[in-house]
Amino acid sequence: MSLPQQVTKVHATGNDFVVYLDRSGEFEPTPDEIRFLCDRHFGIGGDGLIRLTAPEHVSDLSREQVAVMHADGAQWFMDYRNADGSLAEMCGNGTRAITLFAQHEGVADSTEPFRLGTRAGVKVLTPRGNMKPYGANVFQVEMGAWHIGEEDAYEVTIPGTPGSARGTFVDMGNPHVVAVIEDAFATLPVVEDLDLVTKPVVSPVIESDQNVEFVRIDDIDQNAGVGEATMRVNERGCGETLSCGTGLCATGVVLRVKTGIDHWDITVRGGTLRVDVSADDVRLTGSATLVGEVTLL
């Protein structure tokens, strides 16, 4: 087995991960090991696996990419894999989970911003402590630039569920299609009644697989410039998750385009998070929780 004997379970608003520290770079996981650990019946269970290691120990990074990471101040890298064993470019909730774990392991300061390498570039995480209504061990993540496609350019359906909605493509370092349902275009059931165990279908087909978010606008305070929304997500590589950080950011981007509101409190099944969108970046604020340590036999 190419895994360390000790791993840790962490979640960030219900998006859960098996994580471990690999100082020497000797514990790069195989797809079979990832699938085993993330299995909720035969393993520990998780939406993905995160290895915290130095950028030079990540086999799919080029020397140029490693040099950029170090030049941008990232001494540690979030080597994130989906539960099905596939590589992932980015995971917003995963950045908070692995940063809390890095603090626990003594490789990140609990009071200072932490620069974390990811396959979507270096992300900066700032500890915020306890913040209502977002919870304990809250971090604000500078998620970086976003890119949006043509508004409502895709039809989104769910096999076995009548109706459809229109979706908008957003690139947050990984691909998303965001469908605001219960509007003039949508004939799907309400957000709470959707069957997201079944993988949604996006048409026309996007070249790479994508996460799909279904969103309802709950309230807008025009005076404060803040909106409230509810979101559910089917995440590629693991199915429906209780939360998806990049999906929340993609949702905030689409809601900004549709309403002109930059700041959103978005409730997912795992809790409430804050998304702040500007013309050139997105910031995500939410909690993280250490669950426990597991010794592999």
UniProtKB/TrEMBL annotation:
Swiss-Prot/TrEMBL site (Could be important to modulate the pK values of the two catalytic cysteine residues) positions = 176, 235
Q: Name one GO cellular component term.
A: cytosol
So what EC number does this one have? Answer: 5.1.1.7
| Chief place of localization | cytoplasm
Q: Where is the active site?
A: 91 (proton donor), 91, 244 (proton acceptor)
**Keyword terms:** Amino-acid biosynthesis, Cytoplasm, Isomerase, Lysine biosynthesis
Question: Record-annotated residues binding substrate?
Answer: 15, 82, 92-93, 174, 211, 235-236, 245-246
- Offer one example of a GO biological process linked to this entry: lysine biosynthetic process via diaminopimelate
Catalytic reaction annotation: (2S,6S)-2,6-diaminopimelate = meso-2,6-diaminopimelate
Question: Which pathway is recorded for this entry?
Answer: Amino-acid biosynthesis; L-lysine biosynthesis via DAP pathway; DL-2,6-diaminopimelate from LL-2,6-diaminopimelate: step 1/1
Signal peptide feature range? none
Query: Which subcellular locations apply to this protein?
Result: Cytoplasm
Q: Into which EC class is this enzyme placed? A: isomerase
Q: Which GO terms describe its molecular function?
A: diaminopimelate epimerase activity
What the entry lists under InterPro entries is as follows: DAP_epimerase_AS, DAP_epimerase_DapF
Could you tell me which Pfam families the record lists for this protein? DAP_epimerase
Keyword Amino-acid biosynthesis attached = yes
| Family, per entry | Belongs to the diaminopimelate epimerase family.
Q: Its function? A: Catalyzes the stereoinversion of LL-2,6-diaminopimelate (L,L-DAP) to meso-diaminopimelate (meso-DAP), a precursor of L-lysine and an essential component of the bacterial peptidoglycan.
Q: How does it assemble?
A: Homodimer.
This one is known as Diaminopimelate epimerase
Lineage of the source organism?
Answer: Bacteria, Bacillati, Actinomycetota, Actinomycetes, Bifidobacteriales
